Amino acid sequence: MGASFWIKRYLMAALPLFAILAAVEWFAGRTAPADFGSAALWAAVAAALFVGSAYRRSRKAIVCPACEGTAPRPKK
């Protein structure tokens, strides 16, 4: 799995998470640019943790039952 796979995975995690966090800020009535910046920062951090843990599992060939379709199988 190359860099493009991990970049796509990161964007697939970060963008929806940002949308959710920004919507929560908007529904709460806080629409300042700083609030959306905070949502973007938290989305970036959370997506980095998610992708980083998936990358670690991939590199160590650890099979995750919840990630059955995404994690590569250990080589025999």
The protein's oligomeric status is single chain
Count of discrete structural domains: 1
Order of helices and strands: HH
Distance between the termini: 18 Å
What's the helix count? 2
Pairing-aware structural class of the strands and helices? mainly alpha
The proportion of residues forming helix, as a percent range, comes to 55-70%
Uncertain segments of ≥5 residues (pLDDT<50)?
A: none
Largest sheet: none
Q: DSSP strand (E) fraction?
A: under 5%
Describe the global form: elongated
Mean pLDDT: 82
Give me some keywords for this one.
single chain; 2 helices; mainly alpha; 76 residues
What's the arrangement of secondary structure elements?
Elements: H1 3-27, H2 33-60
Helix pairs in contact: 1-2
Model description:
The protein is mainly alpha-helical and about 80 residues long. The protein contains 2 helices and no strands. Helix 1 runs antiparallel to helix 2. The model has no long low-confidence stretch (mean pLDDT about 80).
Question: Can you give me a brief rundown of this structure?
Answer:
The chain has helices spanning 3-27, 33-60. With 76 residues, the protein is mainly α.
